[in-house]
Amino acid sequence: QVQLVESGGGLVQAGDSLSLTCAASGRTFSRYGMGWFRQPLGKEREFVAYISGDGRGRNYEDSVKGRFSISRDNAKNTVYLQMNTLKPEDTGVYYCGLFRAGSTVKSWTNYDFWGQGTQVTVSS
């Protein structure tokens, strides 16, 4: 089994940066892809970024491409999301999840072991 804990969120101004961390506990962490999703207040969960188990494959939602960077350190059982040039529309609760299986990495229904999330608020 895997347990995930997100951290690193906060309140920042537009244009600032934040680095999020997803700490995992589990015996097979490196075998699975990991994804970041976010949920704005009053809206449904949406895809942000994905990284494959070996760290060589990455996928980003179009609105964050070029601004966000996902990475992982399997020796530390940790996934990161570096967020630069933040915009107010990036505001939401950010979650990480383990990719289970499915036809696309962009659907939250294909992930398991969600953490509690970390709040990111970007003011104008």
Helical proportion, percent range: under 10%
Rounded average pLDDT: 95
Extended strand count: 11
Count of helical segments?
A: 0
Low-confidence stretches: none
Structural account:
- The protein is mainly beta.
- The chain is 0% helix and 48% strand.
- It has no helices and eleven strands.
- The protein has strands at residues 3-7, 11-13, 18-25, 34-39, 46-51, 58-60, 68-73, 78-83, 92-99, 111-112, 118-123.
- The strands form two sheets. Strands 2, 4, 5, 6, 9, 10 and 11 form a seven-stranded mixed sheet that branches. A four-stranded antiparallel sheet has the order 1-3-8-7, with no helix packed on it.
- 31% of the residues are buried.
List the helices and strands and how they pair.
Elements: E1 3-7, E2 11-13, E3 18-25, E4 34-39, E5 46-51, E6 58-60, E7 68-73, E8 78-83, E9 92-99, E10 111-112, E11 118-123
Parallel strand pairs: 2-11
Antiparallel strand pairs: 1-3, 3-8, 4-5, 4-9, 5-6, 7-8, 9-10, 9-11
Provide keyphrases for this structure.
124 residues, 4-stranded antiparallel β-sheet
Give a short synopsis of this structure.
The protein has 124 residues and is mainly beta.
